[in-house]
Fold this sequence. Notes:
Shape: globular
CATH architecture: Alpha-Beta Complex
CATH class: Alpha Beta
Radius of gyration: 18 Å
Bound molecules: cytidine-5'-triphosphate, ligand LQXTBERG
Low-confidence stretches: none
CATH superfamily: Spore Coat Polysaccharide Biosynthesis Protein SpsA, Chain A
Largest sheet: 7 strands, mixed
Oligomer: single chain
Number of strands: 11
Structural class: alpha/beta
Number of helices: 7
Strand content: 15-25%
Helix content: 25-40%
Amino acid sequence: MNYCILLSGGKGKRMGSNTPKQYLEILGHPLIYYSLKAFQESPLIDRIIIVSSPNYENYFKGIIKEYNFDKVYGIAKAGQERYDSVFSGLSMIPNADISDENVCLIHDGARPLVTTDIIENCVADALKYKASVAAVKAKDTIKVANKEGFAIKTPDRASLYQIQTPQSFGLKLVIDAYKKMYEAQETNGVTDDAMVVSKFAGVDSFLTESSYKNIKATTPEDLAIIECFLSKNKTD
Ligand SMILES: Nc1ccn([C@@H]2O[C@H](COP(=O)(O)OP(=O)(O)OP(=O)(O)O)[C@@H](O)[C@H]2O)c(=O)n1
Ligand SMILES: C[C@](O)(CO)[C@H](O)COP(=O)(O)O
C-alpha cells in the first residue's frame, strides 16, 4: 500500500498573494489540482492524503467528486510549518500499513508539474534505497557568502543538486524519524523530509533524477514558467 502525502497547507508568504499560491488558478484549475491528478493517475500510488487548512476542505470534496479522485483517503489538518503538516498527514496512516515494504511519497502541492514518470522513479528508488529525493543537478555556479555579502567559497558544482519533491521513504522509516525529531524538539531549520530521515534515522536519501520542469511556485515569476509548461503539456 503506497501513500502520497500531498501538502497544501502553506500560506505562500513569498508569493505575496491573498490566496495561498497552491489555489491560484492557471489554465482553468488551481495549481493543487495538477499534482493531485498526477498522483491519482499513477498506478504505483494507492492512497493520497491531502494536508490542507480546513477552509479548503469543501474545495477538495468538490473536486474529488467531480473528477473521481477516488484514491483520496483523507484530508489532514495543516500545521504551522511544513514539517508539522507532513507529520499531520503521516499520522492519518493506519498502523497496519506502517512497514518499510510500503512507501510514502511526500509532495509539495505547489509543484504542479510532477509526472507519473517522476513518481515511478521515486517509488522504485525508495524501495531500493529506503529513501529518495527528486533532484536536478545545479546548473549555475553556486557561491557561499559571508555575513557581509561577499562570495567566499565556490563549492564544486559536480556535487551540488537542487532538491525537489517527491521525497519518498519507507513508511516506518519516515514515521519513526519524524517522531524522534519531535521527541528531541529539534525542528529548527528543517526545510525538507530528507533532512529529518538523515538526522533522526541515519539514512541518507538517494538523489533520484527529476526534471528541471518540476519547479515549485515560490515567487510570482514562477507562475509564468509554470503556465508555459502546463500549456505545453496540454498540446503535447
Ligand atoms: N505549514 C505548511 C507550510 C507549507 N506547506 C506546503 O508545503 C509546500 C512547500 O512549502 P513552501 O513553498 O515553503 O510553501 P509556503 O510555506 O506556503 O510558502 P512561504 O514559505 O513562501 O510562506 C507547499 O505546497 C505548501 O502548501 C504546508 O502544507 N504546510
Ligand atoms: C521540500 C522543498 O520543496 C525542497 O526544495 C523545499 O525545501 C520546501 O520549502 P522551501 O521553504 O521552499 O525551501
